[in-house]
Amino acid sequence: MFRAMKISKTLFALSILMILSACDTTGKGEPNFLAPEANISPSSPSVNDRLALETGLEKIVYKVGPVDLPTGMQVEEMLTKPIVMNFQTDKPMWVVGFLPKMVDAKGNELPAELLHLAVISNLHEDNPLCKDAGDGNPFAAATSMLREINLPAGFGYPVLKSDPLRMKIILKNQTAEAFSDVYFELAMLIRPMDGFAELKDVKPLLVELDPCNHDTMSVAPGKFIEMTATYDMPLGASLVVAHAILGDFGSSVELSSGDNPEPFWLAEATTDENRKIVKLEGDPFVDSNGVTFKAGDSITMNVTYDNFSDEWLNSAPAAAMIYLVPES
């Protein structure tokens, strides 16, 4: 059983670009959501210099859109009707890395702050922290930090052709500029399951305040708030990667184990004059040896927000995406 407690709250393979259109626009900047369609075309074979030296790697890029974002569009306008796209891969694979972006129709990068939250889930897997949630197990997540995540060498998250996958994306636009034909792009670095490489499976786990309802945080104007959630680990495993799911005005995310009050990982935010996060020191946590947990050991997440503004901060993301390697 899990318990939760809240306190105060030799060749790089040619990659494939898979464009899945999840929504269209009305011409007035309001999203008009449609059933997804898929087109496949070649894309650039390069990911980065280090990865290009590795053998058997491919890159699959999913682009979700387009949608128009008028200036001043608040998170609340999309919360009740997020962009949702269901899809499957065309072959079994190990996913070994993720890179999210915000782009326009030509692939030019757009401001990262247009993304509020993106969560990608495998509907064939139960969420270990809430098996009654009914919306699968999140295996990747991103905020406006657009954090690139690479698993340690020799590890991968297995995805089968039969696995139904889902992206849920919430956008915003609090800039002074309106944007047309906006896409959320997720590049997945993969290794095919072709028998040439055997990787150690990782198990993803989204540690959040309320894994059944995916609640976020609300912070009153001028207030500092700290919230904690504690769970029993669902399996004996080593935690090899963790990254923070934190939004504007966020201060920190930390993880601790057992009864030890000292965190084994802490991500602290550096913000600009508008309190927007420009850097997260210590994020992500990556260790191929990992932090060891036995089944039933507790893991605690602590999240803080410092709302220096004179407005309510609503729907603030507050989670840690972690990857576990089960005991052999």
What does it look like?
By secondary structure, this protein is mainly beta. It folds into 2 domains: 16-192, Jelly Rolls, CATH 2.60.120; 201-326, Jelly Rolls (Sandwich), CATH 2.60.120.230. Helices cover 2% and strands 53% of the residues. The protein has 2 helices and 23 strands. The protein has helices at residues 49-52, 76-79, and strands spanning 16-25, 31-42, 58-69, 83-87, 93-103, 115-122, 137-142, 149-150, 155-159, 165-171, 179-192, 200-201, 203-208, 217-219, 224-232, 237-246, 250-257, 265-271, 277-281, 285-293, 298-306, 313-316, 318-326. The strands form 5 sheets. Strands 1, 2, 3, 5, 8, 9, 11 and 12 form an 8-stranded mixed beta sheet that branches. A 5-stranded antiparallel beta sheet has the order 15-21-17-18-19, with no helix packed on it. It has a 4-stranded antiparallel beta sheet with strand order 4-10-6-7, with no helix packed on it. β1 and β2 form a beta hairpin. Residues 1-47 have low confidence and may be disordered.
CATH architecture of the largest domain, please? Sandwich
Count of alpha and pi helical runs: 2
Rg over C-alpha atoms, rounded to the nearest angstrom: 19 Å
- The fold-level CATH name of the largest domain is Jelly Rolls
What would the principal axes of the Cα set say about the shape?
globular
Strand content: over 45%
The residue-averaged pLDDT reads: 83
Structural class: mainly beta
End-to-end Cα distance: 22 Å
Number of domains: 2
How do the helices and strands follow one another from N- to C-terminus? Answer: EEHEHEEEEEEEEEEEEEEEEEEEE
What are the segments in which pLDDT stays under 50 over at least 5 consecutive residues? 1-47
The helix content is: under 10%
